[in-house]
Amino acid sequence: MDRLTKIIHYFVPLLIAQIVVFFLIKFGFDYRVSNFDKVLDGAITFSSIVVGFLGALLGILVSIKNSDIVSTIFESKERFTLKYYFNEAFTIGFLVVFLSCTMHVLRAKSSVTTDIIFYVWSIVTVAFVPSTYRIVSILMTVFFKSNIVISRPEDNNVISRVERNSIKERLSKNKHS
Question: What is the pLDDT of residues 23-47, one digit of tens each?
Fold first, then answer.
C-alpha cells in the first residue's frame, strides 16, 4: 500500500463519522429526542459485543500465527498497520461505552458541556462502525486465506496411490457386504 492510500485509510472512519454527524446536526438529532436512553443502551451493547468479538478474533489470529499468510503479515511492514487497526477499533469501542455511560448521566441536564459530549459521542459511535468493519474484513480475509491448502496433508502422502486405491476398494467391499 502506498503512503497516500495508507493515510487515507487511517482517516476513513473519522471522515465518515464527520459526514454522518453533519447530517445528524442538520436534521436536528440530539440527546433530547425521545427514547435516547435506548440508543445509548444499544450503543453500549453493540460496542461491547464487537470489542469482545475482536478479542476473540485476536486470539484466533495468534493461534494461526504459524500459517503462511499470518507469517507473511507479521514479517511485512503492514503488521504495524494491522496493529493500528486493532488498537483503533478497541480504543473507539471502549470510548463508545464510556461516553454512552457519561451521556446517560448528563442527558437530563441541558448545557454546553452536554452538547459537546453528545457531538463527541456521535462522532466516536459512528466512527466505530467503519473502523470495526475494516479490521473484521481484513481478519476474515486472513483467516480464509490461511486455511487454503494447495498440497495434500503429509499423512496422505505416506502411502502410494496404488496402496491407497486398494485400501479404498477393500473398505468399499466391506461396506457392501
Answer: 998 998 888 888 999 999 999 999 9
Residue 164 has which C-alpha cell?
491407497
Which of 30, 82, 31 minimizes the C-alpha distance to 54?
82
CA–CA dist 78, 84 (Å, integer): 10
Other CB atoms closer than 10 Å to residue 94's CB: what's the count?
A: 15
Residue 60 contacts residue 143 (beta carbons within 8 Å): yes
Asked if residues 139 and 50 have their Cβ atoms less than 8 Å apart, the reply is no
pTM of the model: 0.74
